[in-house]
Structures are given as C-alpha cells and as structure tokens.
Amino acid sequence: MISFETIEHHDEHEQMMKEIKRVLKPSGLLIISSPDKKNYSEDANYTNPYHVKELYLDEFKSLIGNFL
Question: Which residues contact 1 (CB under 8 A, 6 or more apart)?
C-alpha cells in the first residue's frame, strides 16, 4: 500500500492508521510519506492552504511506530 503525501490533508491520522492496519495483509508493506512541518512550512515560512494538519518528523515517527 502506498500513501504519498496524503496524511497532512486531514486531521484523522489515528483513524487513517487504524484503517491501514486493518486492511493491510500481515505480510503487506506500507510506503507512506509526509512533508516535515519544520522544513516544509516553518523554515520556508510557507502555508499550504490544502494541508489540514502537518506533522513534525518526530510526530510522524511516533504515529507510525504506534501501529507497528
């Protein structure tokens, strides 16, 4: 399963990860990406109007780690 920069477009991250875990086969592979809030928005002084909730790298790692 691939989720290329989709998670930042909503704020239901836990729900998304629960659903991915539910449908992903035990031997399945998840490839997921998200722009790092610090680099993408803060350092660049940029706001993407389509991003509902961006994550810092440590938040992203923690979220994914909760579902391993």
Answer: 20, 23, 24, 28, 29, 30, 31
pTM of the entire predicted model = 0.91
Residue 68 structure tokens: 């391993």
C-alpha neighbours within 13 Å on the C-beta side of residue 18: 4
pLDDT tens digits, residue range 30-61? 999 999 999 999 999 999 999 999 999 999 99
Q: How far apart are CA 31 and CA 20, in angstroms?
A: 11
Judge contact between 12 and 62, C-beta under 8 A. Answer: no
